[in-house]
Amino acid sequence: MGAVMGTFSSLQTKQRRPSKDKIEDELEMTMVCHRPEGLEQLEAQTNFTKRELQVLYRGFKNECPSGVVNEETFKQIYAQFFPHGDASAYAHYLFNAFDTTQTGSVKFEDFVTALSILLRGSVYEKLRWTFNLYDINKDGYINKEEMMDIVKAIYDMMGKYTYPVLKEDTPRQHVDVFFQKMDKNKDGVVTLDEFLESCQEDDNLMRSLQLFQNVM
């Protein structure tokens, strides 16, 4: 999650700090193509303070002046954090997880809602969000092909910095271990309940998922 967080917030140090009133005015008025919800509403809906939302909004607006980010721009921004690998596939899956309404664009509200869950949400909220990321076709289940696509995308993104050097069948082995633990009834798919139960009763599994979350 550090990559996404850094993308839209680190740029604050490069410019003068805008006044509180100016940011609030921008959030409350239609000054871009998309008008985000007001600070008070977002503060109530997330685990961020008003000041934190101001900082995040300034970074988001600096990268996305229109008030929304499309997938191509998202991929370009994300690729900056993984110059030695190919982040395009993982950025695609991550973008779809942020784009909860499947509109093809991510608004500031979408961004801070997901960020709030991943940084400050409960274990249940984080796991539910991760399940949605892995459920690529959004049918309510995770199958082996979907998890294989996600795991391979992560390895591709890390590039030569994966250590030890990966064998060709490493992603498949990783997925097989996950499914052996998660697919309780051995029907070939993992439901949300199976995912939640497996993760919360297996510390090693939870740690593996937390490692994956670190690349978001």
What does this entry look like structurally?
The protein is mainly alpha-helical. The protein has helices at 2-9, 20-28, 39-45, 50-63, 71-79, 88-98, 108-120, 123-134, 144-158, 170-182, 192-201, 203-213; strands at residues 68-70, 105-107, 141-143, 189-191. Helix 1 packs across helix 4 (50-63), helix 6 (88-98) crosses helix 9 and helix 9 (144-158) crosses helix 10. The longest helix is centred in the C-terminal third of the chain and has 15 residues, at 144-158. The radius of gyration is 18 Å and the shape is globular. The relative contact order is 0.12.
In brief:
By secondary structure, the protein is mainly alpha-helical.
Estimated radius of gyration: 18 Å
| Mean pLDDT metric | 82
Order of strands in the sheet with most strands: 1-2
Distance between the termini: 4 Å
Q: Which spans of ≥5 residues are poorly predicted at pLDDT below 50? A: 9-18, 28-32
Give me the strand/helix succession.
Answer: HHHHEHHEHHEHHEHH
Q: What would the principal axes of the Cα set say about the shape? A: globular
Total helix count?
A: 12
SS-derived structural category = mainly alpha
Helix content: 55-70%
Strand elements, count: 4
Q: In what range is the share of β-strand residues?
A: 5-15%
Largest sheet, strands/sense/barrel:
2 strands, antiparallel
